[in-house]
Every structure is written in structure tokens, then in C-alpha cells.
Amino acid sequence: MSLPRSEQVVCEELREFITQNFLYMRPELELRDDDPLLELGVVDSIGFMELVEEVQTRYGIAVEDVEISEENFGSVSALVRYVDRKLNR
Amino acid sequence: MCGIAGIVRADAGRPVTEAALRRMARALRHRGPDGFGLALGNGAGLVCTRLAIVDRPRGWQPMRSDTGGTVIVYNGEVYNHPELRAELSQGGFEFHTAGDTEVVLRLLERDGLHALRRFNGQFALAWWQPAARRLVLVRDRFGVRPLHYAVLRDGTLIFGSEAKALFASGEVFAEPDLAGIDEVFTLWAARPPRTAFRGVRQLPPGSLLMWEGGEVVAERRWWRADYQARYDVDRELEPLLRDSVAMRLRADVPVGSYLSGGLDSSLLTALACDASDHQLHSFSVAFEDPRYDERLWQERAAAELGTVHCVVEVTARDIAGAFPEVIRHAETPVVRTAPAPLWLLARVTREHGIPAVVTGEGADELFWGYELFKEVVLRKLGERDPARARALLDQLYPYLAPSATRRGPAWQRFFLNAGQQADPLFSHQTRAAATAAVKAFYLPDVANELAQVDPLDRLRAELPEAFSRWSALERAAYLEIETLLSPYILAAQGDRVTMAHGVEGRYPLLDDRVFAHSAAMVAEQKLDGLRDKVALRELASRVLPPPFAARPKQAYQAPEVTPFFEDSRPPWVKERLSPAALARTGIFDARLVAGLVRRCQAGRANAREGMALVGILSTQLWHELFCDASGAQAPLETAEPQMRLILEPSPRGAQA
């Protein structure tokens, strides 16, 4: 069972994941939490899948197909809101 | 099959040295391990290394005509040479050899460059007309055989089957052409006449170049893929393809086949078995990694067809081990490791005493087999009915994710929003976008320099006038032939890796009659909905057991990351990706590459990062192999030439 995490911790963990795995190619980019990941090219179609996988494995969340949208996965803040909602449901 | 090279000078009084020709011959020995010949004099020199396949005791080159006095060095096969020979003989010509070289030379002398359209085959040649001091370089329709050249400031022209022959001359120096490299990282290969080397050009497929007294006076296409009348022709495909296969079995040596287990190679192997007067030897690549492996299909096809079959199992370690040699032969950065298993396959083929193989390249371009063609259909549909297009794309790529719909909005962006239908390059926008992953690793200065000119804009500007009249799928097929088949598949995965071991690939589907036939077919005989290669499948259903005719395409791929990051990886990987090595090459940003290496080490690299890794690593190897070396120090061919001609200004120079 995963321990409760604060939004702040989730945000830091996801930022770290994105930095390590995607932003290494964009060292000049200062990513803000509301920046659109797809539109800025931070993640591509394959990277998007990696984000989904990471959220599932790290937080033990079962991501429904219909939930895979830019609304839930499109930015760091969207991801944090989504994870928080799922963990606290 | 051979390697050819030469030097011609603007000033006839300025000699070409035999040492230079011997260095060039040595650089091309792998293409012609059976011996070499040279011609020298009057400010010109030609050399040819020979892989003897037709008329083995004679047929040495350079060859001079005893009627017109012109001289040829020729690499390739014109398969209809017996028919052309009979025609020339009826006209009173007497032949001294039984091979195709003499037929080609005589027909060129009789008909001039009009003769080219009569040649059914794969060839690159240099034709020297001493009286005019004119050199004509020619390359076959699809560019099966390579031909490189450089024109120096003083008007000297230096040519060779491979660029390494130019460097061995000591007069051409290997330097990167960033624009050429950028084309590799856009389209998978530099687009002829560009190469990855500054100042080194490759003759485009179906082209000729004429040099006279120090100047290139003509450079044009003599053939180009074209799509015209459409009619119902599928019933005629079988005799045509059988004839094409039978022609490609003509040789004084045993001809085998490459049998991948897919529709195309199984069909061609079946036709070759029917036409062959001996039991056919077939060869295939199998992978230790089951994701890439097709050996069950290969073994089943071999058993059904009764071939003597040889499977070459390739491991990740084998790929890493072969990779530097593959780059030495390919002479370009690549974005795939797929050429490496084919290099290993050719080595084993040669070890089994088979110097020529029929192979199925061209089927996917002529009969619209690649998924790219289906993407075109679905992406067009996506503009009208996105939901339906998404559902069908999910059917097309079920293996890309555990659940198709998980690809979500990124999938939508990548495929359905990839480009406008009005863009001539609509069909290739997704590939260009995926391949460009490598460019994210450029140093800022390199990226800034390359941002000035988009390789896709150059391609748009050079499309033929007829392009706008073709259908979306015909445009896609043309682009596929121009940008992938000729400069990549037939080169890095074809000529370069087979000829590395003195094995000649023969391509029945690239017979110009087969192309014309396929181009004339109605679209539904190629792609009907999402059912591909319809006419080929119908033919296969008559000559192969049912499962082969119905078998979906399995893309030929090889592992990209594991060869260079598993425990047994060779030490040069770390060295070539080190900051110091990257700084010497000066193309990639070491900080970014370090991030990529971390991803690879962690086993997290995705498909695009795999492509980026192969692109960066191959560029590093390529730079070290060519740009850090000096051609003047290349070794000499020390054997005695099998043929030596003195080139004199008069048309009838004496043979030494």
C-alpha cells in the first residue's frame, strides 16, 4: 500500500522524473508547472506513454484509458492534480 | 560485380600515377577480390577490381573496344545481355568475351546514351572517349550500384564506386558535410547527389554525368520513377516476375537467395527454385532476441521449397562487434543497426561459396507494403473522421503499447496532426519528425548553422514536375524510392554490406519492366483498404502455401540499444561517447549525450532515443574512420594487374 503523499512531494517526484528522463535534452528550458508538455516537445508520443507508466508504478494507480488526456497528463500541475485525485479517491 | 575508380585531368599532359590507381584499387578490393586491371595515360587513369561472375577466364577490365577505341570500367550486371548480344551479332559485331561488359560497351558505341534504356539490370559505369577526352559516368535506374565523384578546382574529376577510393587517391579529403549529415537525421540517408562528405557527390540513381576537358558539361536523369496510365494488369505479373527472376539467375557461379520468411522473399525464392537448374541455397538472419526473430517462418519456407537453408543467428554482441566495419563500408552515419545483421549474413553467404543472391527489396515500394502507405490513407481519413482513423491506427500498431488507447492525445498529435495534406511531403512528415530525435543532440552552433536550410524544403524544391499530378499514395511511393530505397536500403542495407564480402545482391522486383507494370496498376491492386501488396499476395497464393500469402508484414529491425549497453559491450562504445571524443567530432553536445547514455544504461531508452544513440555512435565512428585518416597513406594494391591498357589520344591505343 502506498503511503499518502503531499501534493508538494508528488510535484517534486514528477518533476525529478521529467527532468531525468526528458529534460536532459532541453537543458535551456526552465519548465514551469503549468507548461504544456506535449506542445513544448518535452515529451513525445512515446514519452507520453512513459509518463503514464511512471504514474501507475510509482503511485500504484490504475489509469483508465479514458483518463489519458492532456487534461490529466498535459503538464506537471495537471499530473499532480490527477495523482492527488486518484490517491485520495 | 566489381569496384571501379579513376582520375581524369583537364590537362592531358598532367599524369595520373599508377600508385594512385593502385591505392584506389586496394580500397575497393573487397568489391572485387578476384583481381584487378588498370588503364593509364594521356592525363587519365581507370581501375577496376573484379568479382568474376560471368565469363570468369576473360572479361577483365578496363575494357577497350577494338572498333571505336573507347574504354569502359563497369560494375554490375545487365541481365538481358544475351538478347542484346544476339541483336549486335546479327548486325555483324564480333565479340571477344562472353560477358555483359563488352555488350554494354559495344551498344554504347553504336547507340550512344540512348543505349541506356535498353539495359535491364543494375550497374554503375565510367565510359572514356579518348579522342574527345570525355568521361561519362552512369548509374542504374534505382541506384543499386554506387558511384561517387569529386571535381577538383583544377577540373580534375575523380570517381569511385565508394568514397574511400576517392580518399585513397590522395587528392580528395574526407570532411563532414553537416547538411548531408542533417539529411541522414531527417530521411535516414543523405539524398544524392549529396553525401555525408563535403565535396564528395554520389551520382543520383538513373542519372548520368558528362565531363569534358575539365568541366562537367551535362548532369541529368536518364530515368526516373513515374506513374502514368492505370489499368487492370495483375494477371500478367506472374510471367513477368518469373522472367525477371530467371534473368537474375544467369551467372557462371551458383546464385542463392535471401529468405527472411516474409511474403516477398518467400515468393522470390519459390520462383527461383522453379527457374534454377540446381538446388537453391537460401540464407536468413535470425535473432537471439525473439522480438525480432522470424526463424520459424524461414525454416518453414525453406522446408516447403526444398532449399539448402542456412540460418545466421545474430546476438546483440554480434551487432556491436560488426558495427564499426558496417560503418566503414556504409561510409555514412546511420540511424539503425539493421545493416549489421545483413553484413554478418553476407559474410556467411560468401563462406558457403555463394557470390550472388536474389533478394526481395523493392516489393514494399512498388506494391505499397510499408505501413507508411496505410498511414497516408488513415491520416487522410483523420481529417474527415478522426475517431475512425484513430481506431484503425490502433489496429495498425497494436504492438506499440499494452493498450492501444493509452497512446491518447500524443498519438493524435503524432499521426493525425503531423502535417497538411497539401504538403507534397505529407506522407513522410511522421518519419521525419521521429528521425529528427537525433538533432536534439546537436551542439548549439551546429543547430544554428543547420537551421538556415531545412532538408525537407530542399526536397520539396527538387520534386519532378509530374509529382503534383500523382495520387497521394503514388507521391508516397516516389518519395520512398527517392529518399529511402535508393540511398539507404540499397546502400547501407544492400550493396555496401553484401559487397563488403564480395556478394552480389540481385533484385528481381527492381526490373524496370516490373516497376512499369506496378506503376500502371490500379491502386487497389497494391493497397486495398489496409490490405497491402494485393497483386503480390494473389501471385503468392498460387505458388506458396496459404499462410505465406496471407502473412502480415513484419518490419525488419534489429536491437538498437542493447548491443552497446549490455555487459559484453565493446570498450570503444564508452570511448567514442566520451566528452573528449565528442569534442573532436564537434557535432554533438556532450552534456546531452551524457543524459542519453544514462537513459540507455538504465534500460529506459525509448525507440527515438535508440535511434539517436545509433545516429550519434555511428557518426562518431564514421568521423574517426574517415575524417581523422589520410588517404595518401592508404595501402597500395601490390599484385600484378590482370589487365593493363595504355590510354593514348588516338582511338586505337596499343594494348600493353
Explain this structure:
The complex is a heterodimer of chains A (89) and B (656). By secondary structure, chain A is mainly alpha-helical. Helix content of chain A is 52%, strand content 0%. In chain A, 33% of the residues are buried. Chain A has four helices and no strands. The model of chain A has no long low-confidence stretch (mean pLDDT 86). Chain B has 656 residues and is an alpha/beta fold. Chain B has a seven-stranded mixed β-sheet. Chain B has a six-stranded antiparallel β-sheet with strand order 4-5-6-7-11-12, with helices on one face. In chain B, strands 15-14-13-16-17 form a five-stranded parallel β-sheet, with helices on both faces. In chain B, strand 2 and strand 3 (44-50) form a beta hairpin. In chain B, helix 9 crosses helix 10 and helix 12 packs antiparallel against helix 13 (386-396). Chain B is globular. The two termini of chain B are 24 Å apart. The chains are: A mainly alpha (89), B alpha/beta (656). The A-B interface holds A 20-21, 24-27, 38, 43-50, 52, 63, 65-66, 68-70, 73-74 and B 401, 403, 405-411, 413-414, 437, 440-441, 591-592, 594-596, 598-599, 604, 606-608.
Briefly say what this structure is.
Chain A is an all-alpha fold and 89 residues long. Chain A contains 4 helices and no strands.
